[in-house]
Amino acid sequence: MGRVQGKVAVITGAGSGIGRASAILLAKEGAKVVLTDVRADKLTAVTEEIAVSHVLNTGRRGLGCCG
């Protein structure tokens, strides 16, 4: 956990590229992430990846939504 512990990060284009990498890194560093993307399938995939990692690392669950 790092400098962004407990902060909220809003990331656009989170389904791929730099947005995806930023979302994963910020979540790993303890930020609560709000993710957006025009491709719901890609957004769902990164949301699930972060959620699985979060549960494995903390034992706590988060909430993800696409639509």
Automatic annotation (TrEMBL):
InterPro entries: NAD(P)-bd_dom_sf, SDR_DHRS6-like, SDR_fam. Transmembrane segments: none annotated. Pfam families: adh_short. Keywords: Oxidoreductase. One of its GO terms (molecular function) is oxidoreductase activity. Coiled coil: none annotated. The keyword rRNA-binding does not apply. Belongs to the short-chain dehydrogenases/reductases (SDR) family. This is SDR family NAD(P)-dependent oxidoreductase. It comes from Cohnella herbarum.
